[in-house]
Amino acid sequence: MRARLDHLVVSALQQGAAVPAFTCYDFTTALAVVEAAEEAGRGAILLVAPKTAGTANGLRLITALRGLADSAGVPIAVQLDHASDLRVIADAVAAGADSVLADGSSLPYEENIALVREARAVLEAQGHADVVIEAELGGLAGDEDRAFGADVAGSSAQGAAGLTDSAQVEDFVARTGAQLLAVAVGNVHGKYKGEPQLRWDVLQDIAVRTHIPLVLHGASGIPAEELVKAAAMNVGKVNFNTELRTGVLITLEAETGPHRADGENLQGLLGKWNASARDFAAGALSTLTK
Ligand SMILES: [Zn+2]
Question: Which residues are catalytic?
């Protein structure tokens, strides 16, 4: 069923839980996520990468995910992830996305605010004032779509992005009108080099300065015993991508040969893909609900 992202997340937080968001590059993975959410009786979020949304076929995928979300037995939101291109934002929403991460985190502070406000203006002009906007303050190191092992934010290593400055949070939220706030507290996109060191002290500083739900990106690789603490810090949405991909690719690597031998059994192979993504999603749902 259709769910506003902010309502879904706030109602989870009221129950001491967070909602997992999963990047879907394809429909097989999205089906698996929705099945896992229905089995758990919990809501979930389908994320679409901006590179996906930047193509005509990607926009068709968004429309297909919208249909999947609307027919699901639990609340499912469809969100455009990490978009900084206003045209991609407008196209994705027209195709069926009901929420957007307007991501100006790589820009200077004032330009970040301006981007979020422009995104809102574009959506309002389009007649989509009800679209939920997430904004991001503080830059995350790493690549969302390909994992190479990123340096942890705040480290002195080359190119490492900065932690969210909690002193900016109140002003940023007020001026952007963002309904969710993605933060950089030692989380990275892709793979962690060594053990992730989440800065719970920074997260706590941020959490006391705003009432809107916080979002943790780059959760792949953060141990479950750390993730369960998220909701207590007002983190109501946690994004997963890399680990989901890893699981699917390991499965495909192992299963492609046997399924070729089994009469070019693509249907059977897709079943294995589905099972891998479903198991991962079920695990994330269970972790964030504890
Ligand atoms: Zn992200």
Answer: 81
Per-residue pLDDT tens digits of the chain, which is 290 residues long: 989 999 999 999 999 999 999 999 999 999 999 999 999 999 999 999 999 999 999 999 999 999 999 999 999 999 999 999 999 999 999 999 999 999 999 999 999 999 999 999 999 999 999 999 999 999 887 888 887 765 554 443 333 458 999 999 999 999 999 999 999 999 989 888 888 888 999 999 999 999 999 999 988 889 888 898 889 999 999 999 999 999 999 999 999 999 999 999 999 999 999 999 999 999 999 999 97
Instruction: Give the residue extent of every domain in the chain.
Output: 5-289
- The alpha carbon of 144 and the centre of ligand 1 are apart by a number of angstroms equal to 6
Rounded to a whole number of angstroms, the distance between the first and last alpha carbons of the chain is 23
Indicate left, alpha or beta for 94 from its phi (over 0: left) and psi (-120 to 50: alpha): alpha
Distance, CA 82 to ligand 1 centroid (Å)? 6
CATH fold, domain 5-289, is: TIM Barrel (3.20.20)
> Of 248, 225, 230, 280, which Cα lies nearest the Cα of 44?
280
